[in-house]
Amino acid sequence: MGVMPHDHIELSLEQSLDHCIKCNICTAACPVSAVTDLFPGPKYVGPQAQRFRHERQPAPDESVDYCSGCRVCNEVCPTGVKIAELNARARARLVAERGIPLRNRLISRSEVLGRLGAGPQAPLANLALGFGPLRLALERVLGIARAAPLPKFSRYTFRSWFRRRSAPMANSGPRRQVVYFHGCATNYYEPWVGRAAVAVLEHNGCEVIIAPQRCCGLPLLSNGDFAAARRAHEANVAYLAPYALRGVPIIGTSTSCTLTLKEEAPELLGMRSAMVRTVAEQTFDIFEYLRMMYECGELRADFRPIERTLPYHPPCQLRAHRIGRPALDILELVPGLRLVESHADCCGIAGTYGLKREKYQIGMDVGAPLFETIRRSGSDLAVCDSETCRWQITHGAGVAARHPIEILAKAYGLVI
Amino acid sequence: MHEAIVIGAGLSGLMGALALAEAGLRPLVLAKGHGATHWASGTIDLWGKDERSPRDALRSIVTARPEHPYALIGVDAVADALARFRAVTEAARYPYVGGMDHSVLLPTAAGALRPVALLPITMAAGDVRAGGEMVIAGFHELRDFYPPLAAANLAAQGIAARGVYLQLPPVPRVRDFGPRTLAQLFDDPAFRKQIGRQLRQQRGSATRIGLPAVLGVRDPLGVVADLQLLSGAQVFEIPTLPPSVPGIRLFNVLRAAIERSGGRLQIGSEVIRAEGVGHILTTLCSEAAAREQQHRVRRVLLATGGIAGGGIRTNDAGLVRETALDLPVRMDVNHAGWFAPRFLDPGGHAIYAAGVAADDRLRPLGVDGWPVYENVAVAGATLAGADTLRERSRTGVAIATGWAAGRMLAAYGCDATRSY
Question: Is the CB of residue A28 less than 8 Å away from at least one CB of chain B?
Answer without folding.
Answer: yes
